[in-house]
Amino acid sequence: MESLQDYMTSVGQRAVSAARALASAETGQKNQALLNIADAIIAGTDRLIKENAIDLAAGRENNLDAALLDRLELTPARIEAMAEGLRQVAGLPDPVGEIENLSYQPSGIQVGKMRVPLGVIGIIYESRPNVTADAAALCLKSGNACILRGGSEAVYSNQAVAECIKQGLSQTGLPDTCVQVIETTDRDAVGYLIQMQDYVDVIVPRGGKGLIERISRDARIAVIKHLDGNCHVYIDDKADYDKAIAIAINAKTQRYGVCNTMETLLIAEPVAAQLLPELASRYLQKGVELRGCPAACSLIPECLLATEADWETEYLAPILAIRVVADIDEAMQHIHEYSSAHTESIVTEDYSKARRFLREVDSSSVMVNTSTRFADGFEYGLGAEIGISTDKLHARGPVGLEGLTTQKFIVLGDGHIRS
Amino acid sequence: MESLQDYMTSVGQRAVSAARALASAETGQKNQALLNIADAIIAGTDRLIKENAIDLAAGRENNLDAALLDRLELTPARIEAMAEGLRQVAGLPDPVGEIENLSYQPSGIQVGKMRVPLGVIGIIYESRPNVTADAAALCLKSGNACILRGGSEAVYSNQAVAECIKQGLSQTGLPDTCVQVIETTDRDAVGYLIQMQDYVDVIVPRGGKGLIERISRDARIAVIKHLDGNCHVYIDDKADYDKAIAIAINAKTQRYGVCNTMETLLIAEPVAAQLLPELASRYLQKGVELRGCPAACSLIPECLLATEADWETEYLAPILAIRVVADIDEAMQHIHEYSSAHTESIVTEDYSKARRFLREVDSSSVMVNTSTRFADGFEYGLGAEIGISTDKLHARGPVGLEGLTTQKFIVLGDGHIRS
């Protein structure tokens, strides 16, 4: 029998070979493949639900919690949404081959940059089978071969989705190895995947912080990763009160368990007494627990005293930390110290302070008079995202098709030589 | 006495703090600092030459080879060139703060990308003291604090340059810790530098392959690196003969010891008999040793039979490997197999083949009818380069000011909340 290492090596080699074919595939062919995969998924609905039922039964047997089981479940509506996601990616502009800034240099050569695929992308994710289709679609459209490694709890579902993908690729004349879903549930497969420098160009882990930290630590390949979303809204003393309240409530309460939710509210001292009581009553009505600095506590009777840990925590829950600050400088200092550099927003009508905040705050998204909940690939017009990067290099913030590509220089001459 | 670890930690902390000040420094102030440093370097000529003499004497005592001693030496002309380099960087456009594609989304928010510094850059380099000034200039202009670690053989020279830099920074009102040159020659300092994830955002190693491999292996921080330059020119059967000969001679012989020199010439079989004898006689006149495939050897009596190793080698010397290939497909297959993905050029008058080569060859620079020797930051109009990246992520090819920056998303609203 083939060893795990041999299996992973051949997966890697097949991916490299598929990547070459895919890199020069025409846009129309890639779009057709996406549409064919969407059709195969719809046609495969019964089979998908049958295979998914095996995962669900095993999940119940293994006492997976209700939230996980819910995420694992495929319904006809979710299968239709998966297909619709593929059709949407087919409709996005193709980033590959786009040429930027082609211009003549003093020597007479023309120099520009051409956008090209990264090559082979390894994606490691948990539970949701729809990620198999979403990730495959983004990689395919951006001209990258991909190796997908889903959670063992979704292995039957993922393999069933993989079958539909293979079918769509073959129908279009593209190698069905453009998308490979790892077949074994052996946990060591991840270890090999993140060390295969010769075959894999970038790793995208999607899942809990533990998974991402472990992969970042052990990978010998570049990782596009997203750790924390400890996001801040700063209400300036020159804020419009209605906008401030609308944004502060929306940023915290529109959804609790996502990375672009506000976790700490910073508010300028001159307006704290006027705004905090009203904000607090709205938060408390919605069941949000408040933890504040002494000044915040003195204005809100229900507020618990925050500890240092509160400023550092991504609650992902109906809990909010509140701190009264002297001014924008103290707000930016707090952000610099505690933020995970995901998303921060200032609420102000003051032009100079808006300008400073935009320039000086070093986070992947910096906003003025807007809810942090907008930090999202769809809202940003990227069409879809493979994740949100909190790294600085390569891709920062929501990562769409462009983040899965790179640029090479192209040089056009007519016999030019260097003197 | 302070331990090495404590020293490196405080260097890192000072850099982070300087980086914040520098990120929001105005363009005019950064330019003025560069000009002041240039003046300080010119004014410090005598002192620079005196300190450099200490390094040179130690180098002679330690039997450094002549080429190394030559690179180490500072002369009045080289000091003037260093100052001129700083003035040129002052004259380049400031990439920081540049906003791209700010556009309205369906929700009403405006989303764009702002170019921002990476933060703190660690640069590790060998022998040439001018790198101290060059690297400092590029980091400063791109708004990054930097930590420079030069070779121990140049420690007095580098510290003298560092003094001039400090002086120029202070005169301009910028923290003199924007540029820190590590004072100890303890080799373990590099080990700390490349592991300080909390303080350093990216490492740029400049030097021999051994140094770069070691740093890439051990770093816990992203590395912008350049390994090999195994560059190819492919002369197609539809090449213009005069252009082919001019380019093939220039790409190999204009300079031997640099990364963008051609190391393997690929030539299409239909034109090999006509072109190779003339090319060979020119190469031999210039003292270039030829190593070829059997077909090349049969056309060139002086050609040695190439081994597998020849296709893989970056000679950095007057040696050229030559391979006769059937067509563009075989040429691209050879490049795919052996190239270090630095720079490849096709010589052809055929539109379709030029178009295919540009799209399908996966190297940091891909050229048509041009000498590979053009792959260079100055020739590309970047103004100056910190190196040439053979990586795919973040920066690929010559890395100028833009490669030392990243982009964050900025979002402008007017009380917008997500529904």
Based on Cα principal axes, name the global outline of chain A: globular
Kindly report the greatest chain-chain contact and the residue count on each side: A-B, 67 and 68 residues
- Total of helices of chain A: 15
Mean pLDDT of chain A: 95
Helical percent range of chain A? 40-55%
- Rg of chain A, please? 24 Å
Describe the sheet with the most strands of chain A.
7 strands, parallel
Report how far the terminal alpha carbons of chain A are from each other: 60 Å
**Protein structure class of chain A:** alpha/beta
Q: What kind of oligomer do you see?
A: homodimer
- The amount of beta strand of chain A, in percent, is 15-25%
Q: Which spans of chain A have pLDDT < 50 for at least 5 consecutive residues?
A: none
Query: How many strands appear in the DSSP assignment of chain A?
Result: 16
Biggest sheet strand order of chain A reads 10-9-11-8-7-12-13
How would you describe this protein?
2 copies of one chain form a homodimer. Chain A is of the alpha/beta class and 419 residues long. In chain A, 44% of the residues lie in helices and 21% in strands. In chain A, the strands form 4 sheets. A 7-stranded parallel β-sheet of chain A has the order 10-9-11-8-7-12-13, with helices on both faces. In chain A, strands 5-4-3-6 form a 4-stranded parallel β-sheet, with helices on both faces. In chain A, helix 7 links the parallel strand 4 and strand 5. In chain A, helix 5 packs parallel to helix 6. Chain A is globular. At the A-B interface, strand 2, helix 10, helix 15, strand 13 and strand 16 of A face strand 2, helix 10, helix 15, strand 13 and strand 16 of B.
